[in-house]
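Quick one: structure for this chain?
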Amino acid sequence: MSASRTERLLNLLIALLNTKYGLSRAVLRDKVYHDAGESDVAFGRMFERDKADLKQFGFVIETLLDHGFGSDDPASTRYRIGRESNRLPDVRLTPAEGTVLLLAAQLWERAALGSAAASALRKLQASGDLADVALPAGVQPRIKPAGQAFDDIIAAMNGQHPVAFHYRAASTGKEERRLVEPWGLGSRFGQWYLVGFDRGRGAKRFFRLSRMTSEVQAETRDHCEIPTGFDIRTELDSLNELPLQEAQLDVADGRLLGLRKRAVSITDTAGSTGLQNGTDRLSVPFRDSELLAEELASYGPHVGVAGPPELRGAVIRRLEAAAAFASRPAVEIRFPEAGPAPRVRKRTSENQLNRMLQLVPFLVHNQGLPIQEVADRFGITRKELLEDLKILICSGRPEGYPDDLFDIDWENEHVYIREHLELNRPIRFSVDEACALLTGLATLGGLPAQAGMSEDEQSRALESVTLKLTGAAGEAGRLAAAVAGPPVTPADAGAFDTITRAIQAGSQLCLRYLSPQRDSISERDVDPLRLYSLDNTWYFEAYCHSKAGLRNFRLDRIEEIAPNGRVVSGAGSAEDGVPVKLYTPNDDDVVVVLQLTRQGAGLADDYYADRTAVLPDGGLLAEIRFGNADWLPMFVAQHGGAARILQPAELADASAEWLAAALGQYKQPDPIQTVKAG
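Got it. Here's what it folds into:
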C-alpha cells in the first residue's frame, strides 16, 4: 500500500471540497502534487486516474470554465466538489426501525456483504442518524456463508464484470467451462444460485454454486450490466422444486439414528453395497442429491448407497476427492504470527482512504473514545489505526497553514478531533453497502417479532426503514434487487417459542436431544441463554447441567423440550460479542491444523481459527480448536476435497482410514444398475 498515494488522494479531495470557485490544474499540481518533476503528459494521466478514483467513492467533480474559453483549454479549466453532492442524506430512524436494521446488518456476518453492512452502519452512526438501540436479547439470526464463490460473484456484480468457472451440469454430469454475465445471486430450496446470461449458450441460465468445480474468476477487462428491472426473487420463484425421490441406503445395525427417523421403510438385509451382515436397507425420501450426498459422505463406512445412481455417484465423488486431497504431499506448516489471524486483506490506498472517510465523521460524533475501541469498531489493528491517524494529521487544504490541517489528538490514549475540513458527514452508501442492508431487511420478513414488538409493529418497521434506506441509497441500491438471502423463519416454530419464552422468563428447560456425532439420544437440563441461526437452521446456546458447561443445540435435533419447573441457576452466562459463536472453546480442546483449498477457505472463519496462513495456491492453513476430534474424519469426508487434516498425525491417519473404508464399499458394481442390466 502506498501511503503517499493515499495522502495525495485525501489532499486532492480536501482541496476540491474546500474551494468555492474551483482550482486549476496548475494550482493543484503545485499545491497538492508538489510538482514532482513529472512531465505534463504524466501529470495529466495521474490527475485523471485520481479523479476516477474519487468518483468511485461517490464524489461528483464539477468542471468550471472561464467565459470565452473552450473546454479543451486545461489552463482555464477549474475543478471543485460540491460539499453536499457526496454526503449521505439524513436518515432518521425510530428505535423500532433501528432494531430491525441492526438485525438485518448482523445477518451477513462473515459473508462478502458482512463488512459492507458494518461499514454502512458506521456511516449511519457517524451521522447521528441511527438511534442508540441494541440487538434484541436472546435472538441473533444469521445467513450461512456461501463460500468463496459467493464473495467472488458479489465482487464481479459490483464491478459489472463477467465471471468464468467450471461447472458440473445436473442433467449430464459433464463438467464444462462457463462464461457468464452475473445478473443475480440468491437462495432457493436451501441452495445458492447464480442467475445470468451464459455467453456460450446465448441464453439465461441458473447455476448452483455447489456445482461449481473451480474458482470463480472475474473477467475484469470485460464489462456487462444487469438488465433493467431484473429481480432475483422473481427469477428464483420460477424454479420448480426438484421431484421427490427415495434413496436406498444400507446402514449398519443400530447406527445413524437421525437417518433412521427419516426413513419411510426399514428392511433387515445383508447389505448389497459391501457392508457386513446385520445391516438394514433404509428408504429415505429426498429431493436434492447433492445435499444428501454431503450428509451421506460424512457417515463414511457406516452407510452404503445402493441407489439411485446419481446419488451414489455424488457420494463417491466426494469421498474420492477427499481421499485424493488427503494423499497429496504435505505442505510446510508455518504461521506468520501467534494470536487470532483473520484472512489476509488486500490493502490498497483506495480501501485505506475509504476507511479514513468513515473515520473522520465517526470521531467527530464519538469524541474521546479509547484508541483500541476505535480500532475494534473498524475491524483493524491498533497499528493500522495509528497509521491512518498519522496520514490524516499531515493532510489538509493546499495553503498548508495550521488551521488548514486536520487537528487530531491521541496522546492520552483517547482520540479527539477538533478540525474535520468538511468531512464531518459520511459519504453516500457504496453499492455493496446499500445491498447488504436492503437485502438483509428483505430477508427478515419471516422472523418472529422481537424486542417486545408485535408482528404488525415489526412488519411496519421493516417496511418504513426499507423505504428510508432505499431513498438514501439512490442509484447505489441497484444491486439490492439482484441479491436474495435465504429465509430465516424457524422450521420448528414450537421449539422456538418455548425457548424464547424460557429465556425471557429465566426458566430452565428439559430436553431430549439427538447427537449425530455420538449417534445417541440424551436427556439434558439446561439454562437457555440465546437463540441464533444459520439460514433457517436455528440453534440455542445454553448452560448444560449434565456437562457443566456451555453447549449449543440444534432445534431440529430436539426430540422433546419443555420447562422443568425450575429457574435458571446462573451457573453460566452468554459470551460477550455479536454474533454468538457456534462453537464454544474449552481448555481441553484438541488443536488441529487443517489445509483448506481456496473454495474451502471460509471454513477457517466458520470454525473460528486461532491462526491462519495463506498458501501460494490461494488456499489456507488453519489452526482450529475442536472440543471433540472423533468426528473430524466425518468433517473431511463431508467437505469432499476442500479440507484435510495435517496435524495431529494420528488424526490425519484416522481420516485416511475412514475414507478408505468408505470407498471400499463401492468397489463392487452398482447393485441397482446390475439388476437393470440383468
